[in-house]
Amino acid sequence: MMQEHMMSNMRDHLAAINEILVYLGDGELDKAAETAEYRLGMSSLESHGASHMARFMPEGMRQAGTAMHRAASRFALKAQEGEVLPAYKAISEITSACVACHSGYRVK
């Protein structure tokens, strides 16, 4: 059950990143920021059950997850500034945390 919950969260994270990229491409930085903050950022932790999930994760996985959530909140702030290029640069911090986690961990 916990694995299914975690996989569901990660699939939603990926869908949110895709949504953010579409908004960026359309020049809708405000919508990109909102999606980032409420689907990936620190504001999303409760809706994803992060505190409940964290105790089942290895420390490195928790750290990568926290890095991703913080990066998403930083991206949201950058996107709200209204400049596309800095926002695109900031999104790489989100995906770098995803890559780091997926490189080191697998759900079995």
Characteristic terms for this protein:
6 helices; 108 residues; 81% helix; mainly alpha; Four Helix Bundle (Hemerythrin (Met), subunit A)
CATH architecture: Up-down Bundle
From the 3D structure, determine the CATH topology. Four Helix Bundle (Hemerythrin (Met), subunit A)
Distance between the termini: 12 Å
Overall tally of structural domains: 1
Low-confidence regions: none
Mass-distribution shape: elongated
Number of strand elements: 0
Rounded to an integer, what's the Rg over CA atoms? 14 Å
Strand and helix order: HHHHHH
Outline the biggest β-sheet.
Answer: none
Classify the helix fraction into a percent range.
over 70%
Total DSSP helices: 6
Mean pLDDT: 91
Helix/sheet category: mainly alpha
Strand content: under 5%
Give the CATH level 1 class: Mainly Alpha
Give the secondary structure arrangement, pairings included:
Blueprint: H1 2-25, H2 29-40, H3 45-48, H4 50-54, H5 59-80, H6 84-104
Gist of the model:
With 108 residues, the chain is mainly α.
Describe this structure in words.
26% of the residues are buried. Helix content is 81%, strand content 0%. It has helices spanning 2-25, 29-40, 45-48, 50-54, 59-80, 84-104. The protein is built from six helices and no strands. The protein has a single domain (2-104), classed as Up-down Bundle (Four Helix Bundle (Hemerythrin (Met), subunit A)). It starts with a helix and ends with a helix. It has 108 residues and is an all-alpha fold.
